[in-house]
Amino acid sequence: MRAWPLRVELWLMAIGRWPLVFGAAGALMALLWGTLLPATEQQAAREHHRLQTLRERTVDRPVQTEAPPADTLAAFEARLASANDVTSLMRQLWEQGAAAGLQMNKVDYRTEPDTGGGFERLSVTLPMTGPYPAVRKFTFALMAEFPGLSLDKLDMKRDQAVSGRVETTAHFTLLTRP
Questions:
Q1: Strand partners, 127
Q2: Is residue 76 part of a domain?
Q3: Cβ neighbours of 56 (radius 10 Å)
Q4: Which domain range does residue 46 map to?
Q5: pTM for this entry
Q6: What is the distance between the alpha carbons of residues 178 and 175, in angstroms, rounded to a whole number?
């Protein structure tokens, strides 16, 4: 009769089965570490090589900006309103908002310093209340009618989810000729 199976069984009973479980888990981890890690390192090396190739292809080149043709710039400037017409422009914004079915609270504008573009910049704030489709249509109609008008931000607030009216503050920048 062989005594070693009995000794192994007695030894396992004495120390418990957990060392065997941890030993098997450690062996499995070592096996995975030996097979998966080299594959991951190879993939990382391929990606690093691909990135280096892309960097070599995209050499930093100075950006060459071309001045717009004088006739294009002149056509744009001709479509801009004069700085002397700011009051009438603000009145037009108010009237168009009312015609679109919006309740206009006020039209607030202030002149901003010139950034060297040769235009006068006005920061225009239009608080209004009305249905969202009317606000959207009004906003896009303004930008289509006034080429020097750009939408900077729309702040919208609805008191209740089912409410059809939206409190909106539109922030525009208006370029005018000096």
A1: 169
A2: yes
A3: 8
A4: 4-57
A5: 0.55
A6: 9
Same domain, 46 and 81: no
Nearest residue to 177 (alpha-carbon basis) of 104, 101, 76: 76
Structure tokens at 71: 């006739």
Q: Give the model confidence (pLDDT) of 124-140 as tens digits.
A: 999 999 998 899 999 98
Return the structure tokens found at 72.
Answer: 């294009």
Q: Quick one: 125 exposed, middle or buried, by C-beta within 10 A (0-12, 13-18, 19+)?
A: middle
Q: How many residues does the chain have?
A: 178
Q: In this predicted structure, what is the pLDDT of residue 1? A: 54
- 83, 102, 81, 108: which is closest to 165 by C-alpha? 102
- Sequence-distant (6+) residues with CB within 8 A of 118 are 178
Please tell me the distance from the alpha carbon of residue 47 to that of residue 56, in angstroms, as a whole number. Answer: 14
Q: Are residues 76 and 150 in the same domain?
A: yes
Residue type, 78: A
Q: Which residues contact 153 (CB under 8 A, 6 or more apart)?
A: 170, 171
